[in-house]
Design goal:
Elements: H1 2-5, H2 15-19, H3 23-32, H4 34-51, H5 58-67, H6 81-89, H7 95-106, H8 110-113, H9 117-122, H10 134-147, H11 152-162, H12 177-182, H13 198-225
Helix pairs in contact: 3-4, 5-10, 6-7, 7-10, 10-13
Length: about 230
Amino acid sequence: AMLIANGRKIKSYSTAFLSELPIKYLLHQAQKDQLSYGGLFSPLLRLLATHFPQLSLVDDWMDDQVFGDTCRHQVDFKLSETFINDAFNCIETNPYKTGKVLKAMLSKNPTEIWPFAETFVKHVKCVLGEGVPRHIQELYREVWLRLNTVLPRCLWIMTINALLDINSVAKNVTITQENVLVDPLQVLRCDIRVFRCGPILKIILRILEASLAASRCQLSRHLLDKPLLEKSG
């Protein structure tokens, strides 16, 4: 209110712009190289917890230690969109092939597999099939968590849209960052099979938890940016 009364403009960046910044990934890099960025890490972490609570969930940070940059045993397998598509197309008839591709993705750094994130996520409904082994579903979740360390907010929106329960009335519905900030429960507008698939349900619940935190933060920021001024006289 004081800023507005003094005629000062409050500058803010759009949600879409901020979602494209690898904030979490950069913070992890600062955490790993404390010798070079020791003075920056603590203030950055404090800012993250204040302004981006959805990126500082305890479960996320614990999983990041497991699924982050530290590579597992390297698998000599050259990934491509074609290989990934083929693997998911035969997920029920040849789960071994799918598992091989997923393990190859797990063996690489998150930034190396991020270019395949869109291809990977668009096949999430394939994982919901009744004939898909639980082991493959768990591997899928692990790869998703690995991707979640790079650009989590982009990944969440891709996942939400890929799992949308599209009916004949709303075939061209696309959920955006802004939609989720206004109504986080849109995350639950997903294929009913999600609620019968534990590993994918965990993904949805993680996105929902983060979306609720982001929505609360957005509301607080909105109240600060556009406070209600008392009418004088």
